[in-house]
Amino acid sequence: MPRQIFQLKVSLSDVSPPVWRRVLVPGGYTLDRLHRVLQHAMGWQDCHLHSFDIGGQQYGEPDPDGELTLRDELDVRLDGVAAKGTRFLYTYDFGDWWEHEIVVEDVFGAEPGERYPVCVDGGRACPPEDVGGAFGYEQFLTAVSDPGHPRYAELHMWIGRPFDPWTFAPDRVTTLLRHLA
């Protein structure tokens, strides 16, 4: 029997127009590996804490201080907690609180010779790290798109690279994901 591949649609909550990705991920991946896939797919830098909420159960890195009750994501496989039609949440950066809705759109056998994970589609660039959540991102977009805005120069220097909120390249993400295969 071929490995099971999960087709996931990942949508960033509270951002308009939508920022989303469609990725194909082996069902045998642990939630820790899924976290790394999501980091690459969305464009995050893995600088902050994260958690999954699946069926009311919280998963993530164990909290050494015991303040967060999380099941260890290293012990849980995607195919053990999700099936076609499952919806769950992935939260990244508890300060900015980037919440992602994930939908398992399909589950199917792996194509012979195909390497996974793969990013097959998506829309819009991911917000930069530490921009201040959805509200901060909205302010950032307003400022960087208007050369007359008082924070235009400051924010362009802060981001340190060109930023086009409309651009997304699934092939570039797939290239990054090849390191996880």
UniProtKB/TrEMBL annotation:
Boundaries of every Plasmid pRiA4b Orf3-like domain copy: 4-170
InterPro entries reported in the protein's UniProt record: MM3350-like_sf (IPR024047), Plasmid_pRiA4b_Orf3-like (IPR012912)
Pfam family, one: PRiA4_ORF3
Coiled-coil intervals, chain numbering: none
PANTHER family noted in UniProt: LEXA REPRESSOR-RELATED, TNPR PROTEIN
Protein name: Plasmid pRiA4b Orf3-like domain-containing protein
